[in-house]
User: Fold HD domain-containing phosphohydrolase from Photobacterium piscicola.
Amino acid sequence: MYSFLNSTHSLNTRLNLFVASVKKLYPEIIGIAVTRIDEHDNLYSVYRSPDYGDNFPTFISSISQSPRLNKIRASLEPSIIDNMLSHQSSVKQIHLRLLQSNCISSMACPIYSNDIFIGVLFINAKVKDFFSEKINYFTTFSILISLLIADNFNNKKSFHSIVKTVLLLSHHRDPETQNHLKRVAEYSRLIGLYLAKKGKCNGDFVDSVYHFSDMHDIGKSLIPEDILYSTKIYTDEERAVMNQHPELGCQLLSNILTTFKYDNNQELDIILNIIRHHHERYDGNGYPYKLKGTDIPLEARIVTVADVIDALLSHRPYKQPWSIDDVELYLINGSGTLFDPLCIDAILYSLDKITLIQKRYPDVIEETAPL
Assistant:
């Protein structure tokens, strides 16, 4: 009954066990869905019970358009729909999909960590008035689920903080600023969410790529400074040393993981794939393994595009930022050779959001004060 509390299980396994135990008590329950919120006010599902099939939406655009969800975010209080058949929703399409899974009543609860709203838990049942009659039980149920989610969220943040320390050390004189890493994470999530809409991945994958994309260049901390910070064109020997940073990064991260006993294998694979393969090219002419096309892990293909976009749009000691039009043309010309065409489609679809992210996380260019 309480095996869902076993922290050695993955979050999805723990949630599956929890839902199964509750369905034994209340077979009217269809299941739950856990969503996270992104920087653009959108919800995306990071977990949903198997019984939903494909009917629970992967992506809910702009919760501000839903009075119910917007109220939950503002109040941090649950919301109950007793009969979805008679509920007038501003997001009718979503409710129609849920009705196809026989969801008649619904309870939506805020998920928050340290009083910060991070998503919504949805619980659905096959009969009307189900949650109103059992409000105390399912309020407790939602709190336990939220604790599992928040615990996973905080564990991920704690691990991230450990690696961030290494990143800060490796970037203390690097022209690629911390806001560069933040922008790469945001661009990666934009691409991931677009691919999720196309059925190429799920929200849990998108969330992991978002959290771990900024680790892609961690191996640079082991590159000699005279090479890492050089503004000159590399010699062949220097380029060969620099090209070792993906493998060096994997070795460094593996040592960190061993020290801190981080054992989420699914996330570990994503992290290591991002670090090892973010310099592969779609046509097979990248490094270190010359992987081609979809042999390159999707997470690496996503981060490759996100990293290149930000490098082109950013000021560097050796270059001025490109215009968004020039970057767009470069991406189009590189689609299918340098980059995964689907990832390029995702960015072209979201160019307006690229500009917003740039403005939200600008680089601070340090100027030398006059003598």
The longest strand covers residues 116-125. Residues 366-371 have pLDDT under 50 and may be disordered. The CA atoms of residues 188 and 340 lie 13 Å apart.
